[in-house]
Amino acid sequence: MTISFEADSNVRRNSRLILGASIVLAIIFVINAVISGYLLRRNTMEDRADQLATLTLILAEHTSQIIFSANTVLKSIDDVVVVAKIDNEKSYREFASNKKQFELLEEKTKSNPILDVTTFVGDDGKVLNFSRSYPAPEINLADRDYFIYLKDHNSPDTFYSVPVRNKGNGKWMFYLARRVNGKHNEFLGLILVGVSVEVFSTLYERIGENLGNGSSITLYRGDKTLLTRWPFADDLIGKVNTNTLIEQSLAEGENSNGVIFTDSTGFTRQNTAPVPRVISYRRVTDFPFIVGAVVPETLYLSKWYKNGSGGLVASALSILVLFIGTYFLLTTYRRNAENEYHAHHDVLTKLPNRTLFSDRLSNAIAACKRNQEALAILFIDLDNLKTINDIHGHTAGDLVLTEVSARMRQCLRDSDTVARIGGDEFVVLLPGVGTEETAVMLAEKIRTALILPIDLGGSAITTSASIGVALYPAHGLNDADLMNSADVAMYEAKSSGRNAIKVYGKDLVANIFRDIS
């Protein structure tokens, strides 16, 4: 591709337009991918939030049923005590230590899989009877929170303890406890129902395993003491969750679904980097418990990652195809433009050739007819190109032609056209020239520019030109007549001694000679 073709303003402008349009389309693809990805991510998060909110609602109801069933067992044992009409501490101990009561406790424990043990406790904290064996071993529960609280508070309500390791088997339990009173409401002891933390965790596992690896389900007492969780974490049971995420979720639940997205440090990751996650907590109906579920970002956005990566690949492929298509379009366009350029321009001087000049002359004549204007053409023939070629070689002759072409372009207006139509012949189109005097002035300007020495690698070469002038409509009404008139005038100039200007139809308009030396 030639330098002058590369510099063609129309080709460059159109190439920029094509490339710019492709870039705009690529940007649109990128923006569309970003917006689609954002909307997909937001919708995925909203869907996951709704699913998690529904899950915690189910968990809260499920937990409420489990605790209700355990509390029902506790109340049924309490009803047996009430029916026995126990008046004092002695009669209570006799009643509670009886083997018949062991069988009662054993039966009640077996009736509910969530229960690990049921127990009668004396006013000194001593275990009087429990469902594991008879007689009961020497165990004292006076240091437990439920014993301390109910001994000092004459409350008929069930007390829900913090989780502790059972003194009988060492497993984690939390207890439902009720106070036993004497005839005068004096404290006689307790009835306990022990709920297995690990069994509770197993129940949550059946629900939570569908959430995926990294998820968790937790059960807290109302004061945020961890009662149980899935996956089971022995080192966390009984500890208090001190962060504010539970409160935030519960507060959100008052207005919406209680789901929050966070990346703050969690209860189970105190010493590790926080993980972005979605959490939801709910209060358990009728009981002082809070149930919650946590799903990490890698899980709740897994569908988005999959679909988003597919969309990203599709967008990338679309952009790739777009730019490949643009490349081939530009290549084809520039090749066609180059071929068209070479078909209408002189290879050496890059000036329009005879074909392009004829087209421009025809258009200019048509415009002059419409606008009632005049135009002129200058037929220019170099006087000594053959001599230069013979003496200095054709390479020097080519350099002279290139320099002559450049000088002529500098003498003309942007609206004018100079073309090379033969070896040493040039023609200039001057649309809207106005008068014959103006055309002659421009011809003289060109003639003067061409007689200046041309430097060819240290050697100065001089040339000159014979110029014939013809005007529309005076010297021809069509392009053929005008070209013929200008050609005749040029031959008149050359015949009169060269380095001259002749106007068609006059003996002499301008006949200026200069010494070439």
TrEMBL record:
It holds the Pfam family GGDEF. The keyword Transmembrane helix applies. The chain crosses the membrane at residues 17-40, 309-330. Keywords: Membrane, Transmembrane, Transmembrane helix. Residues 373-506 form the GGDEF domain. GO terms for molecular function: catalytic activity. NCBIfam families: GGDEF. This is Diguanylate cyclase. The lineage of its organism: Bacteria, Pseudomonadati, Pseudomonadota, Betaproteobacteria, Burkholderiales.
